[in-house]
TrEMBL record:
Lineage of the species this protein comes from: Eukaryota, Fungi, Dikarya, Basidiomycota, Agaricomycotina
Matches recorded under SUPFAM superfamilies: PEBP-like
Protein's UniProt name: Uncharacterized protein
Gene3D superfamilies attached to this UniProt entry: 1.20.58.1180, PEBP-like
Any Pfam family hit: PBP
């Protein structure tokens, strides 16, 4: 059948079904799944009306009719597959579950009522439904949110400085006083006196839902790390742990939960504000959210021995975690300034116990600043230059001592010459 003849048939059928098309779509969008263990993709909007009155556009009526027929057919397939799920062990057939989720998305992806609700609300309050989670994930992946995040964390060398790879599966949003903090942006340290608001919307159930537990939860660990903390011992940089919280329960309906709230999870290390030292380059403050699993030892909640010289990879390894367990990531940057000097000193005094305040560092060597070692030839030149300088200083000290001795031997020279 040619496309023209198919369109003609659609238009011919529109006359008999155009009165029912809109009501079928709206009803389908507001009908929950008949299987209690399956996530419902219903819409709260059953008052959706077509953009055009019936009969105003035969093509529009035909499109509504086609969408209605496709939805009814897909829902029939969905119900047949749902009846095959083993209620005693639903996760025994992951391929079947994947096909059920896909059919549920296919049934509602082009439903005008669902699309309108998502456009107006962003899915808020509807994330227990598969279709709204799918729409939210598509928006995050295709409208720049994930692209901007990955561009910043890769460009700013979070990989490989902290992790060998970054595979986030959900957004981890930062905000301060209701204002969105763009990933990788430069911020003043003082505005982070208290932790920012952190929210994460996961798009997939951590385990299969049931009638008694339609939105299962999983525990998560949140870390905030500065990988640019200067190290006196190595004359380089090390990781400093600014925040650690474990046992954060999250489900697909937890998108509005502030992960930094004291009532959420178990706070292992309280928030330490950023305090980049004078003479150091911009510091990266990286927020990492990991999914916990039952195989994690019970000692996982114990605090690290020190915030300084933290080893993220070692910490994860001890708890049976890897980069693949990463759920969300975000970051901001901060640097010392004269305006922020007082605040930074107060952080060192009040949070780090350094009574003299923040140390001041000299100019960062190029091989440290740009992350590459000097060549053997360049290193020999630098060593020879350093030796020559030390010899010159030693000779000058000896010359000064000789001159001082001569002056002291000259009669009447007291008080006239200072060496």
């Amino acid at each position: 059948m040619t496309p023209r003849s198919a369109a003609t048939r659609l238009l011919a059928r529109a006359g008999s079904s155009k009165h029912a098309s809109a009501s079928v779509l709206a009803r389908a969008a507001s009908t929950s799944s008949s299987t209690p263990s399956a996530s419902s993709s219903s819409s709260s909007s059953s008052s959706w009306e077509p953009a055009l009155p019936t009969g105003a556009s035969p093509a529009y009526d035909a499109a509504l009719s086609f969408l209605s027929e496709h939805q009814n057919s897909t829902l029939s397939k969905l119900r047949r597959l749902q009846s095959k799920v083993d209620s005693s062990n639903p996760e025994s057939n992951p391929e079947l579950l994947r096909r059920i989720d896909q059919l549920e998305v296919d049934a509602y992806a082009n439903d005008p009522a669902v699309r309108r609700v998502f456009r107006e609300t962003g899915g808020k309050g509807q994330m227990d439904k598969t279709i709204y989670r799918w729409l939210g994930e598509q928006k995050w992946k295709k409208e720049g949110g994930l692209d901007l995040l990955m561009q910043r964390v890769l460009q700013m060398n979070v990989v490989p400085d902290l992790l060998p790879e970054i595979p986030p599966t959900a957004p981890l949003a930062l905000s301060l006083h209701g204002s969105y903090v763009e990933p990788g942006s430069v911020q003043k340290p003082s505005i982070f006196q208290n932790p920012p608001t952190l929210k994460s919307q996961i798009f997939h159930h951590p385990s299969y839902p049931s009638a008694s537990n339609p939105n299962p939860e999983a525990l998560h660990t949140l870390l905030v790390i500065d990988p640019d903390s200067p190290s006196h011992e190595t004359h380089s940089f090390s990781q400093r742990l600014h925040y650690l919280k474990t046992d954060i329960p999250l489900s697909v309906t937890s998108g509005d939960v502030n992960l930094a709230d004291s009532s959420v999870g178990s706070e292992v290390l309280r928030w330490e504000p950023p305090a980049p030292e004078q003479g150091t380059p911009k510091h990266r403050y990286v927020f990492l959210l990991f999914r916990q699993y039952s195989s994690i030892p019970s000692t996982s909640a114990s605090a690290p021995a020190s915030r300084e010289n933290f080893d993220l990879r070692g910490y994860l390894s001890e708890r049976g975690l890897t980069a693949s367990h990463l759920v969300g990531i975000n970051m901001f940057r901060s640097a010392w300034s004269a305006e922020e000097d007082q605040f930074i000193n107060s952080v060192f005094v009040e949070h780090r116990g350094v009574q003299d305040g923040a140390p001041v560092f000299g100019k960062v060597p190029k091989e440290v600043k740009y992350g590459y070692p000097m060549s053997a030839k360049r290193q020999r030149i630098e060593e020879a230059r350093e030796e020559a300088w030390e010899r010159a200083v030693t000779e000058l000290k000896g010359l000064a001592e000789d001159v001082g001795g001569i002056v002291q031997d000259v009669p009447g020279s007291e008080g006239k010459v200072r060496v």
